[in-house]
Prior knowledge:
It is built from 5 helices and 8 strands, in the order ααββββββαββαα. By secondary structure, the protein is α+β, with helices and mostly antiparallel strands. Helix 3 (about 75-80) crosses helix 5. It is globular and about 40 Å long. The relative contact order is 0.23.
Amino acid sequence: xxxxxxxxxxxxxxxxxxxxxxxxxxxxxxxxxxxxxxxxxxxxxxxxxxxxxxxxxxxxxxxxxxxxxxxxxxxxxxxxxxxxxxxxxxxxxxxxxxxxxxxxxxxxxxxxxxxxxxxxxxxxxxxxxxx
Length: 131
């Protein structure tokens, strides 16, 4: 993946050019069709997505708990905390997203503490909102 493809995404915009290059080496871009289930609550969590284009709904059981769009992150709780999906996520329009697999992402923890601090803050916020 070209590092220029991620520089406008809020999660990566504060990283150095070198760090974005490293992220790009460990990430892929995926396209998801409207109506596709991106994650299923309770399933094993293997990857994190950052939405570049498109929208998705997040469900806890049958309850709609969030609506996501460009720049939003999804999958961080499962990949970094619970190892299981805490919600079901459904694409409500075609999505283009950056995907990083858990082991590749966590391997970068020591070299990108600011990135992980941001992800951990997001996790705390989302888990507190669910309480």
